[in-house]
Amino acid sequence: MTKNLKHFLILSLIGISVFGQVVNETNPPDYIKSITIKGNTPESQLPIIRLGEDIVLEFDALNGNEDDFYYKIQHFNYDWTPSRLSKVEYLQGFDNQRIVNYENSFNSYQIYSHYKLRIPNNQTRRLLKTGNYMISIYDDYDEMVFSRKFMVYQEQANVGVAIKRSRDVRHINQKQSVDISISPRNFNFNNPKQTVKALIIQNNNLNTAISGLEPLYTVGNELIYRYDVESSFWAGNEYLFLDTKDPRVANAATRYIDLKDLYHNYLYADLVRATRAYTYNPDINGNFVITAIDADDPSIEADYIWVHFYLDHPEFLDDKNIHIYGNFNNYLVEEATKMTYSEESGFFEGKMLLKQGFYNYKYVEVDSEGNLNEGAISGNFDQTENNYKVLVYYRDLGGRYDEIIGVGEGSSINISN
Fold first, then answer.
1. Which residues, other chains included, contact 85 with Cβ-Cβ below 8 Å and sequence gap of 6+?
2. What's the Cα-to-Cα distance from 335 to each of 28, 321, 340, 365, 395, rounded to whole Å?
3. What is the pLDDT of residues 56-111, one digit of tens each?
4. Which of 413, 393, 384 is nearest to 78 (CA)?
5. Beta partners for 326?
6. By C-alpha distance, which of 50, 224, 80, 100 is closest to 147?
7. In this predicted model, which residue has the larger pLDDT, 56 or 167?
8. Can you tell me the distance from the alpha carbon of 185 to that of 255, in angstroms, rounded to the nearest whole number?
9. In angstroms, what CA-CA distances link 157 with 87, 101, 133, 184?
């Protein structure tokens, strides 16, 4: 084998490994807070936008340096491996541009700079393809600060979503099952078991999404997914909430408030709900909204508050930890969300620095191997109102990337047997 041929084979293998690598989101450092990325929804949630719609990313930097940040956009396959499209094929204009829209906080105890990026803009004029995307934020040294996923779709298929009680009798009162029907518009699927892929997302949380399901059967040109076990989710419980729109006023969830260097908001102790009867409580399915009373622009006028959480739970956990969980930090389990037992109060305690607003949260158990149990403390009840979204991906024979050709949505408020 010649030397040049050896080099060619090595480079080819490197290219294959790069293209085949699954990419995960990068979590931000401590000084980056309140990351929201959304389309046309009032609260921050997993952004799933139509091709041609705007997407808005906002975040705060609490270091007071007025740093420069840059953004890059990359296109991905269904399984979050980089697609083989070149940038000019999925992006009209340029990325790797500085975020020029930022303002400093006004009349707040915590100093911060608020950054806002809207796409399209003068540099990044248009996204050209549907599919999975990642937007990554870099600093002046071209080091990644954090990244977030979003999805772009075009309606080329009808997606029906029906929420059913579990057909598995072992968990009939604890799980919810998602039935799907997919029918293309103005075209026919080629070999759908290989070319069509469905992703089922509960409450905008990609960590618990179900993928890899094939249609069980077809009726004409309609694909039917009606599984007994494979498409079922733990039903969970309604999220708890906290409201800090006015840091000076205690509400139903707040015991008392104290002003130190910043406001401190001390919540009432929450109870373990897994052993209690289900009680309906309206929520926003784990999401959050940045808002403040008497503020013309909450993005720069809302302050940061130390929120103190308390959970009435036995001390002994058999090598498990308790974490505060929700979309406020992209469902991340980290040291900042960990609770510790206090001998003095008899509660598990935790605190988080959160911007004024309305937040959903719950408590979860995480074992020593990182396995997360959402229902250990909150419980699982088939009556729980959950939101479900189904994304349909399609790569025709000979196609070079996975399109998103349809989105369906359903709520378990209409659950049936």
1. 75, 129, 400, 401
2. 13, 10, 11, 13, 40
3. 999 999 998 999 999 999 999 999 999 999 999 999 999 999 999 999 999 999 99
4. 393
5. none
6. 80
7. 56
8. 55
9. 26, 37, 20, 4
